[in-house]
Amino acid sequence: MNLRTLRYLVALAEEQHFGRAAQACCVSQPTLSAQIRKLEDELGSELIERGPGRFLLTDLGSEVVERARSIVREADQIKELAQRSHDPMAGRLSMGFIHTLGPYLMPHIMPGLHAQFPEIRWHLSEYQTHELLERCVKGTLDVGIMALPHGEEQEGLLRAEPLFREPFVAALPPGHGLAKRKTVTTDDLSPEALLLLQDGHCLRDQALSVCGLAQPHNQEFTATSLETLRQMVAAGLGVTLLPQLAVHGAPATVQAEALMIKPFKKPVPYREIGAVWRHSSAKSHAIEQVCDTISKIMKALI
């Protein structure tokens, strides 16, 4: 049994596909398959239940994967400790974003991060909140950028650091009755016309909370992304709340004139954007420096 084979097994469990796992490990698929077979022979038990075009982890396989994750994570942290002793701000840093933030935030922060930390090799990805938290806990992500709070289920495992507050704005279809107002309130938005993202997106719960709703009134139309939500508003299907960066951030598929964007009266509703990472991370110093830079960039922008 060796560390490389354990990495192959963890990658297979993460990717749920032999080809993608092999690609992630930078080896051929036959090599990965053969090494996992060799591990099974060494243990004298099957770890994977194989079938045509599919596979499942056996009960033993699932337990071995969890132990292997811990071993791989600890081995990586040993390497990171050694590397950080030479240069704390060098090496690979994997950073994940929630879907409603990543494409709008990255254009603002990445140029500054590249300039501030030229020796860091960035690995960026997007996940829904629950998966981002899970990957941070398991160590497949170094740091997650998301809306806080992040949930009590990870209490004690992850450290949370607020970065900046992102205001919400109201998005209305052209010709809406509120179009002539300079500002609006959440009470102005009809609950029956409020459009939301599908379950699983934290922005859905935040919008409901801002509007003082326990459950959505309009469940006929839900969106899979912010861009779909913008399209639905532009089509006259209802109104919605958008984070400010989603209006002024990355290029959108909906032209600005197709939506009426209205700021809210004070107190302006907002979401708290923060970073989460493991208390035990060997990269904590680097992550703290990155968080400080992001916070400065965004507080100057918003």
Overview of this protein structure:
43% of the residues lie in helices and 22% in strands. With 302 residues, the protein is of the alpha/beta class. The strands form three sheets. Strands 3, 4, 5, 6, 9, 10 and 11 form a seven-stranded mixed β-sheet that branches. Strands 1-2 form a two-stranded antiparallel sheet. A two-stranded parallel sheet has the order 7-8. It is globular.
Query: In CATH's first tier, which class of the largest domain applies?
Result: Alpha Beta
Number of domains: 2
- Count of distinct strands: 11
Looking at how many chains there are and whether they match, the oligomeric state comes to single chain
- CATH second-level architecture of the largest domain: 3-Layer(aba) Sandwich
CATH fold node name of the largest domain: D-Maltodextrin-Binding Protein, domain 2
Question: What is the share of helical residues?
Answer: 40-55%
Cα-to-Cα separation, first versus last residue: 52 Å
Biggest beta-sheet profile: 7 strands, mixed
> Based on CA inertia axes, which overall geometry fits?
globular
Q: Give the integer mean of the pLDDT values.
A: 86
| Element-level helix/strand string | HHHEEHEHEHEEEHEHEHEEH
